[in-house]
Each structure stands twice: as structure tokens, then as C-alpha cells.
Amino acid sequence: MSEPEGFVPPPYPYDRLAELVHVAEALPGGAVDLSIGTPCDPPPAAVLEALAGSGTERGYPPSVGTPAFRSAAAGWLERRFGITVDPAHVAACVGTKEFVAGVPHWLRLRTPGRDTVLYPEISYPSYAMGATLAGCRAVPYGSLDAIDPTDAARALCLWVNSPGNPTGDLTDLSAAAAWGRERAVPVLSDECYIEFTWQGPPATIVSSGLEGVVAVHSLSKRSNLAGARAGFYTGDPDLVHYLSEVRKHAGFMVPGPVQAAAVAAFGDDTHVDQQRSVYRRRLSLLATMLAALDVVCPQPAGAFYLWAPAPGGDAWALAKRLAVEAGVVTSPGEFYGPAGSGHVRIAAVQPDDRLELAAERLGVSAGDVPHARPAPG
Ligand SMILES: Cc1ncc(COP(=O)(O)O)c(C=O)c1O
User: Fold this and answer.
1) Atom of ligand 1 nearest to the CA of 124
2) pTM for this predicted structure
């Protein structure tokens, strides 16, 4: 075969960590992998029962989501955030990554005169990759004010992510919605960490109205269901309808048993409140571990990552030190854009005993950590 003339997929970021994994694996007890934000805790038993017992395997599931799925998602928004959306304006997605990576393509089919995706300069890589996969321009922004008007005029959409991966930062979502409405640019708000907001109340973009906005939600983080692949989007009725029609033609379907599990997951909040305490404790333990390396890392405003400033701005050196000395595998910040290259992202996604093992390798014991263990009772 001749050399391809077009797109060649770049190395997948996490595939670049093989050497760090190898070094960490060599320690007694093995590697503690805190690179990918994949949950390690179990989903609620009732969710797994619904997954196994729905009897929905035979027929095709509705692409947009079953009535029960759409109502459960709308009910969750109402209960947790006081937002009323009509279940008719809720549509299912197969986890949110496929939606994030696919949406520029579908928006471009509808609006071929626009070719630009605007996304935060330090962010989840799929915003930029979605633009690339659609043959569009991926244009990062530092702040809304700094966006070039010519880029705004060409924009198919603007992404926001709050709480944000990797920094945990919170975004002024109503300001983003207003920015988009003024320029007729759809604002897509990735809210998969919404219930892991630590500073202030959780916020969704749809609280500023539905016009011109789409909020994207996932069960992966909320309910430790990343392996099941379930999420939804809601917002501007015209956009949601368009996207769900296109996706129906393309064959995107959340499997029926997963939709049944999602109904159970959206119906319960207790497990999320418990998970919040687990992440807070782990984030605290990880910050104490970093302090043993003289790295001062603030607690994030949201999400379950530490965004650690690397000494001298050398993220690969810090990642290597963490692998060699603590057996911990982390993600150098350049995975999230060049502006992130001076930081390392550390995900609080291993059980406490594994984190304690890593900390002990650096001479930190669980007793040194404020609230490292749950309070008795
Ligand atoms: C900001 C953000 N958005 C979306 C996703 C994708 O999650 P999922 O496809 O499991 O819903 C992730 C996963 O890490 C994420 O961090």
C-alpha cells in the first residue's frame, strides 16, 4: 500500500506512558496507575441488577433513549439541580466521548459554511480531536474575551467543561451561554463531573435557558459505569432534535440493558454522595504524597484530579520521579494541550490501599493525612 495522503491518527496519549508503567511495575507491589480517569469503585447493586434483568436484549433499543431513560435523566436534573427539562428534549449517547468526538462532523453537515471548533486551551483531548475528525479547525481559547472575532464567525460550536478535566476549574456557564447567543454559536457544555463540584453549588448551562446550548452528561463518573457506556445530552430543542435524528441514521444506540441500568442509576443519589467522600479523601492523600516530593498542589474546585505544578515546569521529569519513587503512573499535562505542559494530572482512581502503598513508598503514612480515613461511624 502507498503512503496515506490524508489523516494519520496520532499516537494515543496514554499509549505514550508505556515506559512509566514499566518503571512503576518494577517496584514491589507493582504500579499504581493514576493516569486514566477510569473509576475503580463498584456501581450500586441495584444498577447491576437492572443491567442483568431488563430482558431487553432481543430488540433494537431506541437511539434517542427509552421513555424511561429520558424521564429518569430529566428527573435527575430536576432533583439535583432544580432544572426542568421536557424528556422530549433529552437524548441518549453511548457514553459521552463518542458524542464529543462526533458532534463537529454533524454540525458541519448542517452548517457547511462554518469550519471551526473552539475549545478550552487546557482540556480533555477529544474536543480538539472531534474537530480534526470532521476536517475542521480546532482553535483553543484561553478566555472568552480572547477569542478572535474571525474565529467566532467561523465557529460551529464552543466547548466548555465545568468542573474541568484536568484542572478541576469551574467556568462561568451563563457567561459562555451569553457569548454563544450573541454570536449564534452553539455552546456545548460537558458536565460529566457536575456532582463532583467541591467549591460552591453544582452548575449546569441549561439553568440559563435552553436556547443555543447543549449540556452533555455521563454516568461513567457519577455511577462508576464507564464500562457500560451511557450518557445523554439536553438543551436547545432544535439542536437536540437535529443531533438525535442524525445519530439515529448513523446507528448510535445505548444497549437496552444499559438503558435499564441507567434508569436505576439516575434514580439514586446516595451512591454519588458516598463517592464524593471517597474522592475527597483520596485527593487529600494524594496532595500529602506530593508534598513529600516538595510539590505544593492545591485541592481542585471540582472533578477528581490533582493538577500538580511540576518543579521547573518539567512535567515528564515529575511523572518519571513519581513512577520511580512512588510507583505511580500519571499523565503529563501536555496531553491536555501545550498550555498544560508544566503540570501533571493525577487521578484519584485507585482504591485507598493502593494509594496508601504509593504514599508509604515516599515515607508518608495514612496517619499523616488529614481525613485520610473515613471518620468512624
Ligand atoms: C471531560 C470529559 N468529558 C467526557 C469524558 C468521556 O466520558 P464517557 O465517554 O465515559 O462518558 C471524559 C472521560 O474521562 C472526560 O474527562
Assistant:
1) 1
2) 0.96
